[in-house]
Description:
Shape: elongated
Mean pLDDT: 85
Distance between the termini: 16 Å
Amino acid sequence: MRLRTFGIFLTGIILSAGASAQTTSFPKPNYFRQVFERTRTNVELRDPVKLKDFVVDGKLELSLKNFLELVMENNTDVQVTFLSVETPRNNITAAYGAWDPNATANFSSTRSTSAATNPTQSENATLGSTSKSLVQPLSLTYSQALDTGTSYQVSFGGAKYSYNNSFSSYDPSITSSMSFAVTQSLIRNRSRYVNRIPLMTAQSTYKRAEFNLRVSLLNWVNNAENTYWRVVSARENVRVQEKARETSKANLDFVQKQLDLGAVSPLSIFNPQGQLAGADLNLSQAKFALEQAEDALRHQIAVDLDPDLRRLPIEVTEPVDISPIGLDLDPESEVKKALSNNPTVKAAAQALDIDDLGIQSAHNSLLPALSFTASYAGAGQGGIYSSSGSTLLGGGPPIIIPGGLNDALSQMFGLNNPTYMGSLSLTLPIRSRSASMNLANALVAKKNDALNLRNTVQNTRLNVITAISTVNGAIDSLRLAKIQEDLQHKNYDAEVEMYTLGADINQNVVIALQAWVVAQSSVVTAQVNLRTSILNLYTQTGELLDERGIVVK
C-alpha cells in the first residue's frame, strides 16, 4: 500500500477561521462576518497520530514502510516544509486582486447660517438678517480594472439644496447626475498577456516552490531513512558484540575447567578474563550507541512528544541483508533519469520561466503610456419650482410648480442633458533610467539563472555518477566482507580445535576470535553501507519518494 501525503499538508497545524484569508465577496451573507470578525491568532498543534497502531507486546515495532509513514504524518520538519508552499499559493490569489472591483459611497450634510450681504441671499436682506442653507450631496461610484487593459467607472450623484432665498428658482433643489467612463490602454499595458504577467509570475513561483518542496522532502526522507538504518546497524552491532561476549565467556569457562584439572598454569586464566572484560566493554558501548540511535529515531516520528509511548522499546523489523542482484547500473541511463526527475533541476529550469516574465514586464515599463477615454454624463434637476424672482421686475404673482426627486431622475435617465467626451492621454518617457535598469537587471537575472541551471545539471550528473560508484563499491565491499567473515569463522573453528587437541596456545584462539568478530562487524557495516548507498542514489535521481511509495498531492 502506497503512503499518501497531501499537498495542503497543514498536518498538526490548524489556524483559527478568523485568521484565514477572505474568500467571499460582497454582498454574500458571510462577507461582513469575515471582514469584521475579530482575528484570532491562536494556533493548535495536532498530537502525533498512528503511533499506537504499531505497539505490539509493549514494543514499538517498525518496518521501514511503517516508519516512513509515521515520519510523513508526524515529523515536525516535514510539516514545516509543507507550509513553505502556502505563501506562494496565497500570492496567486493576491495577484487576482489587481482586477478586484471597488465601490465607493459618500454622503454629507452641511447646514450653514451667515449674514446676508446682498439682496439675493435672503428674502428680507436688511441689516442683521441671515442667510440659511442646507446642502446634502450623495455620490456612489463603482470601478474595476480588467486584465485586457481596460478600466471602467460608473458614478451616480445626487444633492439636495435648501435656502431661505425667495429668489431661487428651486427650493428645495434636487439634482442628479450619472456618468460612465471607459479607459483603454493603447501601448503600455494594452494586452491581456502583459497585464497577467504578475499572475503568471505568481503561478510560476508556486510551481518552483512545489519543486523545492519535493527537494526538501527528498532530503528529509533520506535523513529519516538513514536514521532508521543507523538503528539497524547499531542493533546488529549489539548482536555481534553479544555473540563475541558469549564466545569469550565460553573460552574463559574452558580455560577455567583446564585450570581446575591442573592442565594449564594459573597464569593462563588472565588472558581469557581480559578478553571477557574487553567484550563486556564493547557490548556496553554498543548498547549505549543503540540507545542514542533509537532516541534519534523517536524524534523522527515525534514519539518523544507522547509521554505514554516515548519510553517504549523500539523494534526495527527491516532485515539488514540485501541482495546485490539486479543492481547493474548504467551511468548514462541513471543520469538521464535524474535530469528528468530530480526536482532540483526542475526548480532551476522553472526560474528561467520566471525570468522571462520579468524581462517582458520590464520591457513593458519602457513603453509610452497612451490611453483613450470615452465617457458619458447625464444630469437632472428637480424640486419645488417658484417664479417669485419675476416680481422684482414688476411681474405677476409667483407661480409654484411642485416637483421632486422623480423629476431629477426622469431627466437623467431620459438623456435630456447628455454630455459626451473622448480624450487621449500620452505620457512619453523622455529618459527612463529606472525602467532601463530594471530591464538590464532582469536580463542579468536570467543569465545568472541559466548558469545556475547548467551548474545544477553538472552537479546532478556528478552526484549520480558518484552515487553509482559508491553503490558499486559497496557491492564489492559486501562481497569481500562476506568472504573475509567466512574465512575468519573457519580460522577460529580451526584454532579452537587445535587448542582443544593441545596443538596450539590460547592466545591464538583469542586472536582468531577477535578477527572473526571484526569480520562479522564488517559484514554488517557493508550491508548498511549498501543500503544507504542505494538510498543516496535514489535521492540523486529523484526517485526516492516513488520508490518508497510516498505520493505528494
